[in-house]
Amino acid sequence: MTTQKQHGQVKEITSLANPIIKDMKSLSLKKNRDREGVFMAEGLKLIIDALDLGWTIRTLLFSKAGLGNPLIEKTAARTKASGGLIIEANQKVMESVTRRDNPQMVVGVFEQRWRDMSTFNAKGEDVYVALDRIRDPGNLGTIIRTADAVGAKGLILVGDTTDPYSLETVRATMGSIFALPLFKMSADEFLKWRTGFHGQIIGTHLKGSVDYRTIDYKKGPIILFMGNEQQGLPDNLADSCDQLARIPQAGRADSLNLAVATGVMLYEIRRHNLTLDPREARS
Ligand code: SAM
């Protein structure tokens, strides 16, 4: 049985034991993603968007079923032009790499991108989201997607957080992982950096004394600071905020889900900038 043959620049792989496939599967572990500085993203549209945004693709894996699809061929040509590897695989390999029964027809391995805080340049009414020790990949993906949807400018991951480049988080972002710059730092670094930030830092807290609907969000730039799922914002980070906002609750729930609370806050903060007519949207 042929396990690997090469025609033109496309490798055909049908064996799960192929080292390239093993390497791709190993990206399910953070230590391997970090060592290689890469991550995996699934779906043709999302991969095309990523290339349009200038992300670097290392490997493009597509299913045999996609052969002859002009968009896949164009994406393969772009991958080749940037020095990436193109692999045609069977269903079994696609399922194994994506760990899914119904995998997407195309998977890309991209280089990770982290921004240095020295490039952070918030101005005007810019909004950023800071997340304290976020744990849940689904929450992080949902927050990245929501932050992108409202036109936030980036995300700051504070402390030890779940990896934004895990397959689960990337899936939950629905492509927004490619749209928002990511910064990360420890809580101590944030506290130090914070002294030089001249916008508003709005923390959210179950003990917050300010109703989130009463804050003047036009006085930007704004960093919305959300607390850890289990513990909320610790005192030192809460004390570093200019205001601590609370979303009122009426029922028996102790708190809102972190991603939901972030969505409620972001839509209130960006309310005056958002319109159904995209031509009127203000950044
Ligand atoms: N046990 C945690 C606590 O006591 O803070 C609950 C944390 S809650 C699940 C996770 C985060 O969501 C909070 O730190 C806060 O940022 C935000 N959050 C949830 N409900 C909120 C509310 N009603 N008002 C303001 N923030 C809220």
Automatic annotation (TrEMBL):
Residues 40-116 form the RNA 2-O ribose methyltransferase substrate binding domain. One of its GO terms (molecular function) is RNA methyltransferase activity. Pfam families: MRM3-like_sub_bind, SpoU_methylase. Gene3D superfamilies: 3.30.1330.30, 3.40.1280.10. InterPro entries: Alpha/beta_knot_MTases, MRM3-like_sub_bind, Ribosomal_eL30-like_sf, rRNA_Methyltransferase, SpoU_MeTrfase, SpoU_subst-bd, tRNA_m1G_MTases_N. GO terms for biological process: methylation; RNA processing. GO terms for cellular component: cytoplasm. This is RNA methyltransferase, TrmH family.
